[in-house]
Amino acid sequence: PRVAVDAAGNATAVWFRSDGTHSRVQAAGYDAVGPTLSNVEVPSTGTAGSPVSVSASATDVWSAVGSIVWSFGDGTTATGAQATHTYAAGSYTVTVSATDAFGTTSTATRAITVSPAGALVQLPPVLPKLSATAKLTWKRLSSGATRLTSLRVNRAETGSTVTLTCTGKGCRKAASRRIVLTTKNVKRKSITLTRYISGMTLRPGSALSIGVSRPGYQSRTFRYTMVKRRSPKKTTTCLTPGAANAVSC
Predict the structure, then answer these.
(1) pLDDT tens profile 29-66
(2) Do 227 and 204 contact (CB within 8 A), yes or no?
(3) Strand-pair partners of 133
(4) How far is Cα 110 from Cα 85, in angstroms, rounded to an integer?
(5) Residues with Cβ within 8 Å of residue 16, at least 6 apart in sequence
(6) 93 and 75 in contact (C-beta within 8 Å)?
(7) What is the pLDDT of residues 88-139, one digit of tens each?
(8) Strands 247-248 and 230-239, bridge-based pairing
(9) pTM for the structure as a whole
(10) For the residues of the chain, what is the DSSP string, one character each?
(11) Residue range 12-24, pLDDT digits in tens
């Protein structure tokens, strides 16, 4: 016989054999090693409850690869070049095995750490903002005070509530009130509030606030703070129902 051996230990033997009449060529092979595993893809991390995907390929010198088997380290298995698995939180060793037609097996291992799933956070609903605007007019006096002349709320929706609040020196009682907007007092989505503030003279530091609210909407507040010999400073804030603090809007 003539024998050839490769670097891995696989061998082939060839010889002649006579049956008394004819000479025949015969051969035999020896499969010393299992399949070669390559492209073994196992993620190093995962999240509990979310499936992870694994894959691998295998080739063999002498025969076709019979099967690829996955052992996920938690008592479960799967077969095939590709597979998915869902873990509980913890650390696991994934083992992939490939077996050739002669029953020789090769294995490879990979580690994976699975983190607990994050708690679901219930976000508060995003409420629409009111589109109402306020327009206040005034006259600056030589004394440094400010005399109010007119006030109007535009884009006012029926069902909204307008709250007037006046603080500081010069406020009249009529300038602090609560008005529910109806079809009777809203004309073309506008309401005039001049009669409550007209002629009122406010000293520097005093403030007039106009709040507009409506169920299911973020409320809006316009605040005019009087400044000596200058126009009032206007700020606009919005407040989501249930929130602790208003924000600029």
Answers:
(1) 777 788 889 999 999 999 999 999 999 999 888 777 88
(2) yes
(3) 154
(4) 14
(5) 23, 24, 25, 26
(6) no
(7) 999 999 999 999 887 889 999 999 999 998 766 666 677 888 899 999 999 9
(8) antiparallel
(9) 0.52
(10) -EEEE-TTS-EEEEEEEE-SS-EEEEEEEE--S-PEEEEEE--SEEETTS-EEEEEEEE-SSS-EEEEEEE-SSS-EEESSEEEE---SEEEEEEEEEEETTS-EEEEEEEEEEEPPPPP--PPP-PPBP--EEEEEEEE-TTS-EEEEEEEEESPPTT-EEEEEEESTT--GGGSEEEE--TTT-BTTEEE-HHHHTT-EE-TT-EEEEEEE-TTSBEEEEEEEEETTEEEEEEEEEE-TT-SS-EE-
(11) 889 888 888 888 8
Cβ atoms of residues 224 and 136 within 8 Å: yes
Q: What is the pLDDT of residues 179-201, one digit of tens each?
A: 898 878 888 789 999 999 999 99
Which residues, 6+ apart, have CB-to-CB distance to 237 below 8 Å?
220, 221, 223, 246, 247, 248, 249
